[in-house]
């Protein structure tokens, strides 16, 4: 867990499907300053994993902080984490609290 | 007058 986020959870999502299958909203300079999961698509890697939930806020992706990142930057980091062949999983540090 | 009320909503991206 993150040192400053005692309620955070580390979720490892295996790349078990061709898509990650989440929709996110938020980012720096919006009403939702950290990216939040708004949809989990059935059949995607995130859904298969079973541990990510709608409403969770993403704090880190593969150890990279989402703080201060605008929406497109956060989305790009998540997309690249899923696309890279260096790992067969993506690690999300998430929290239920906004 | 809260600052957060003046911030725009975010777009949504499917990943």
Features:
heterodimer, A: 4-stranded antiparallel sheet, two-stranded antiparallel sheet, 2 helices, about 20% helix, globular, B: about 15 residues, alpha+beta, 1 helix, about 20% strand, rod-shaped
Can you walk me through this structure?
The complex is a heterodimer of chains A (98) and B (15). In chain A, 18% of the residues lie in helices and 30% in strands. Chain A has 98 residues and is an alpha+beta fold. The two termini of chain A are 16 Å apart. With 15 residues, chain B is of the alpha+beta class. Chain B is 27% helix and 20% strand. Chain B contains one helix and one strand. The longest helix of chain B has 4 residues, at 3-6. Classes of the chains: A alpha+beta (98), B alpha+beta (15).
Summarize the structure.
By secondary structure, chain A is α+β, with helices and mostly antiparallel strands.
Quantity of strands of chain B, as a count: 1
Determine Rg of chain A (CA atoms, Å).
12 Å
Spans of chain B of at least 5 consecutive residues whose pLDDT stays below 50 are: none
Main sheet strand line-up of chain A: 1-6-4-5
The percentage helix of chain A is 10-25%
Query: Which blocks of ≥5 consecutive residues of chain A have pLDDT under 50?
Result: none
Q: Which oligomeric form is depicted? A: heterodimer
Q: Give the number of helices of chain A.
A: 2
* Chain-averaged pLDDT of chain B: 81
What is the straight-line distance between the termini of chain A?
16 Å
What proportion strand of chain B? 15-25%
Going by helix content, strand content and strand pairing, the class of chain B is: alpha+beta
The arrangement of helices and strands of chain A along the chain is EEEHEEHE
Helix content of chain B: 25-40%
Alpha-carbon Rg of chain B, integer: 11 Å
Shape of chain B: rod-shaped
Give the helix tally of chain B. Answer: 1
Element order of chain B: H for helix, E for strand: HE
